[in-house]
Write a structure and sequence with these properties.
The complex is a heterodimer of chains A (439) and B (257). Chain A is mainly alpha-helical. Chain A is built from 20 helices and two strands. Chain A has a two-stranded parallel sheet. In chain B, the strands form two sheets. In chain B, strands 6, 7, 8, 9, 11, 12, 13, 16 and 17 form a nine-stranded antiparallel sheet that branches. The chains are: A mainly alpha (439), B alpha+beta (257). At the A-B interface, helix 3 of A face strand 6, strand 7, helix 3 and strand 8 of B.
Chain lengths: 439, 257
């Protein structure tokens, strides 16, 4: 046991100096905000208006930038729980290191010289959360699944050098474990904490509620679960309501892309197709507002009609989220991985093993090609050299644009196909379990 | 009911045509208004104590700062502010500009872009790619205006000269980094006819650093102050602060007969 945990931690420590440049900028400036008792949502708002002013001229005349108009600045657009978790750390860190804002304009490559110690302070809670998910998974699915999760390359990359999805996942998986144990109130609270760390675990709330209904849980169980979820969620969101509204606007208006069919717009842009602004800024978000609720609705109806076990229901609704969302960034897949491992342990089949491998490997391949992976070394490069790299707005002058876009589109469409196949596979394999799940 | 079901398709088509006709009639009725409606000439950002006025079709008022009585306290001019980047000089009025207002929080974001300069200059390569970002915020009893430069390619030296216009400054006094003056309710033409103002507003402008300040005057008095700020090797793609002004005004005082 100790061996794989130490190995997983060692790999993560090696990754501490590496980071996705743009997201490192976000986390570093989040520390600056917190150290100065300023809401990152207000900084997000300020930068967004400034970005609209800076890019407004470009929208008329073009030529300054490759790409289309930016309506928002890419900054802290997450729920507030990470702010509360990091607040004391930011204060302590600021007491040792002077902190100053470092932002590039939207669309530029964020090449900042940020102290290496920041990476360790920022990532330590993520590593703990990774370990927490692994230990919870051990309880749910055994040591093999826990090890497969903790040493998974995508999980290691996301927590070691990228995003805060582990904070959401640890609460979400805890919520599912508690629900299975019949501790409904704590389960609702844990799921809400997951949704307060990143939005994705919120889609599990109705899934667990339907699962409880189909199990014939008593009314007090429903009441405890839903009341705890809603109370904790409201307590977390209401103090930041103004910022949450801005974040909701951002998510509603942002164009689709990455591991979704919306990436085809990006491909068309690289092939010089003109006048994509309408499709990018209006049609793509509009399609997203239809596909996400539709996919989730189909998943919830399926959970209800087929009385799916909890792990299957959770897997199905997360697959539905990834299929319906207009934007699927690589880290979004993080939460699905422990759920798939749990599902595979409950009802093992060769197809689920293949599904797990494809579901993590395709986003990983997308990150390798798309970010691209060498960019994770940019913070270390900037830190070690005295040079100030002026890398411009995109790497498109370096990478051949059209083949690059086509490669990304192929991976994205393969991922969508895998999810569709995964939907069918998960449902097909659980048909045998149906009678046992019905009360 | 059988009739409805039998002719459902035709009924739906007919209903669609009727709706379209009704909408078209409505459209024709409002067409005249749509055609004659002008694009706005100015944007106003209103706060409790001040109003920021941004002209959209000229280089003036970027922005003008008014009190709630409508008197111009000072005008930040686009035409008469200039930037010199690596030796290439241009007034801000010749730059492309775009305004975004956060009305809820009383903030105005104005970006000046060098793009039109590059397109109009015979030797474009000499005009560097940069933007000047101005953020003006209404903060209770004061207005804070900040200017930053954002180079989109390496530049060595940028000089910003801000033109603060006021037709005309009266009782102008400088103490350190603070300018004090009286602002009247008179327009330029009225002031030049030596008409008597109905009210005067005491104004203080405090500026960052220690810029060179030059007063411009004509036969009627001082009408502009030019504040000169300089920055060397600002980092590409990042905001580097050039200038910060803080304006405070007292209550307008009636001028006795």
């Amino acid at each position: 046991m100790v061996g794989w945990i130490l190995l997983g931690l060692a790999v993560r420590l090696v990754l501490v100096p590496f980071h996705h440049p743009w997201d490192l900028q976000t986390w570093y400036n989040m520390f600056v905000d917190l150290a100065r008792d300023r809401s990152p949502y207000e900084t997000f708002r300020d930068l967004t208006y400034l970005t609209r002013a800076l890019w407004g001229e470009v929208a008329i005349t073009g030529k300054f930038f490759d790409g289309v108009r930016a309506s928002f600045y890419g900054y802290y657009a997450y729920p507030p729980l990470p702010l509360l978790l990091y607040y004391p750390l930011a204060k302590l860190y600021a007491a040792v290191h002077p902190l100053a804002y470092r932002f590039v304009v939207e669309g530029a490559v964020a090449a900042h010289r940020i102290p290496a110690s920041f990476g360790l302070v920022f990532k330590a809670p993520l590593f703990v959360a990774d370990l927490g998910v692994a230990l919870l998974l051990w309880r749910l699915a055994g040591e093999r699944a826990a090890r497969a999760f903790f040493l998974n390359p995508l999980v290691v990359l996301v927590s070691g050098a990228w995003m805060i999805d582990s904070l959401a996942a640890v609460f979400a998986v805890l919520g599912l474990l508690l629900a299975r144990q019949g501790r409904h109130g704590p389960a609702g609270a844990a799921l809400a904490l997951g949704a307060l760390a990143k939005w994705i675990p919120a889609v599990l709330w109705p899934a667990v509620g339907l699962w409880l209904l189909r199990r014939g849980a008593p009314p007090r169980a429903h009441l405890a679960f839903h009341a705890a979820f809603l109370t904790v969620l409201a307590a977390g969101l209401l103090p930041f309501w103004d910022g949450i509204r801005l974040v909701a606007e951002f998510h509603a208006q942002r164009p689709g892309g990455n591991l979704t069919p919306h990436i085809l717009l990006y491909v068309l842009a690289q092939f010089g197709v003109p006048h994509l602004d309408l499709a990018y800024h209006v049609i793509s978000p509009l399609v997203g507002t239809v596909t996400l609720p539709a996919a989730l609705l189909v998943a919830y109806v399926t959970i209800w009609r087929r009385a799916l076990p909890l792990s299957t229901a959770a897997a199905l609704v997360l697959i539905a989220f990834l299929l319906g969302s207009k934007t699927v960034n690589e880290p979004y897949v993080y939460l699905l991985l422990p759920i798939l491992l749990w599902e595979a342990a409950e009802r093992p089949t060769p197809a689920k093993t293949v599904l797990f491998r494809a579901v993590y490997a395709l986003p990983l391949a997308f990150a390798i090609v798309g970010v691209p992976v060498l960019m994770f070394a940019l913070p270390l490069y900037v830190h070690l050299t005295t040079l100030d790299p002026v890398v411009g707005y995109t790497l498109s002058p370096v990478l051949p644009r059209q083949p690059h876009a086509l490669a990304l589109a192929v991976i994205a469409l393969a991922f969508v196909g895998t999810l569709l196949w995964g939907w069918c596979t998960v449902l097909k394999e659980t048909e045998h379990a149906l009678p046992a799940a019905v009360p | 009911m059988p009739f409805l079901l039998r002719y459902l398709d035709r009924l739906l088509i007919a209903a669609g045509v009727l709706v379209l006709v009704a909408l078209s009639a409505r459209t024709l009725g409002s067409l005249e208004r749509a055609v004659v409606r002008d694009a706005p000439e100015a944007l106003r950002l209103e706060g409790e104590s001040y109003v920021l006025l941004y002209s959209l079709n000229s280089g003036m008022n970027k922005p003008a700062i008014l009190n709630t009585a409508g008197d111009v306290l000072v005008e930040l001019s686009g035409w008469n502010s200039e930037v010199v980047v690596d030796g290439v000089r241009a007034d801000l009025g010749r730059h492309g500009f775009h305004v975004e207002l956060d009305r809820e929080r009383g903030r105005g974001y104005l970006a000046f872009s060098s793009l039109p300069l590059r397109e109009s200059e015979p030797s474009r390569a000499e005009v560097r790619k940069y933007q000047i970002a101005q953020v003006a915020s209404l903060q209770g009893d004061r207005v804070v205006v900040e200017y930053a430069i954002i180079p989109n390619e390496p530049i060595h030296r940028a000089v910003l000269t801000l033109g603060l216009y006021r037709w005309y400054y009266t009782h102008l006094v400088r103490r350190g980094r603070t300018l004090s003056f009286q602002s009247s309710d008179l327009s330029r033409a009225a002031a030049e006819q030596h008409l008597r103002p109905r009210r005067l507003t005491p104004v203080q402008v405090t500026f960052s650093d220690d810029p060179q300040v030059e007063a411009l005057a004509n036969a009627h008095g001082i009408y502009a102050l030019a504040l000169r700020y300089e920055v060397r090797a600002p980092r590409p793609f990042q905001r580097t602060l050039l200038a910060r002004l803080v304006l405070r005004a007292g209550a307008p005082e009636p001028v006795s007969e």
